[in-house]
């Protein structure tokens, strides 16, 4: 008789926030925090996370294009990411972390870019109707703080060069989404020190363990 062992499904955690909010700073902490609790962690990102997705990322971050083309390519990258990384990881019992997911498409392509919200929702339903994150950490800072942090640090890509009102619309949409999905999205005040921010992240993660 063949015995089938089915792994307990893992979890899916996403990181969101406007550029410069502090997501990347804290992903390593989350990896270590979960690994120390015995979890196998897969850390990935969007756009990207697969060979094809990383090629799409290059185009998305550097080429100007119609906002709907941008959304379609974001979801093309997402479809591949779900097929190759997210779904197999969760099925194995891993904890899959993604630096951005569909909330970013609502914030950037719809609220800031002007694309019809229903079209983003239609793409989300098509690409991952039944798969939404178990937890989304939303790193929230005022636009001016994010801008100062970015300016101090790096060469800016296509999105990072956008003006303050673009990021205000992104931030407002993220906060609106957090209000709509309070069980999934935890708002992390990222204006505080890195240690204080970590404590808030740890508290949010404890709820999933
Ligand atoms: N709590 C914080 N206090 C001060 N600076 C921070 C804090 N969090 C992040 N930073 C700095 O802000 C910059 C942008 O952070 P980063 O994590 O790259 O943002 P994101 O990935 O959200 O674009 C980095 O230089 C980082 O060191
Ligand atoms: C996933 C996703 C990202 N983006 C944008 C937001 C970011 O400006 C950019 C790349 O995200 P990010 O990985 O946060 O950039 P960085 O590594 O430079 O911090 O892609 C969208 O516009 N829509 C999306 O659906």
TrEMBL record:
Residue numbers binding ATP: 17-24
Gene3D superfamilies tied to this protein: P-loop containing nucleotide triphosphate hydrolases
Domain Thymidylate kinase-like: 15-201
Keywords: ATP-binding, Kinase, Nucleotide biosynthesis, Nucleotide-binding, Transferase
Catalyzed chemical reaction(s): dTMP + ATP = dTDP + ADP
GO molecular function terms attached to this record: dTMP kinase activity
Top EC category: transferase
Coiled-coil regions listed: none
Record EC number: 2.7.4.9
Entry similarity comment: Belongs to the thymidylate kinase family.
The protein's role, per its UniProt record: Phosphorylation of dTMP to form dTDP in both de novo and salvage pathways of dTTP synthesis.
Name recorded for this polypeptide: Thymidylate kinase
Organism, scientific name: Massilia solisilvae
Gene that this sequence comes from: tmk
């Amino acid at each position: 008789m063949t015995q089938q062992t089915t792994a307990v499904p893992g979890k899916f955690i996403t990181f969101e926030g406007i550029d410069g909010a502090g997501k990347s700073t804290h992903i390593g902490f989350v990896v270590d925090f979960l690994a120390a609790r015995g979890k196998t962690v897969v850390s990935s990102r969007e756009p990207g996370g697969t060979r094809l997705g990383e090629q799409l990322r290059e185009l998305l971050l550097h080429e100007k294009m119609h906002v709907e083309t941008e959304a379609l390519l974001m979801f093309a990258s997402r479809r591949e990411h779900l097929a190759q990384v997210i779904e197999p990881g969760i099925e194995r019992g891993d904890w899959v972390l993604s630096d951005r997911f569909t909330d970013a498409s609502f914030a950037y392509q719809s609220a800031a870019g002007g694309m019809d919200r229903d079209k983003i929702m239609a793409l989300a339903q098509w690409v991952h109707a039944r798969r939404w994150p178990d937890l989304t950490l939303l790193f929230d800072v005022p636009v001016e703080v994010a801008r100062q942090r970015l300016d101090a640090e790096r060469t800016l890509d296509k999105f990072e060069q956008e003006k303050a009102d673009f990021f205000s619309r992104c931030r407002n949409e993220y906060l609106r989404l957090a209000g709509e999905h309070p069980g999934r999205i935890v708002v992390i005040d990222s204006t505080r020190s890195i240690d204080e921010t970590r404590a808030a992240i740890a508290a949010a993660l404890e709820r999933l363990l």
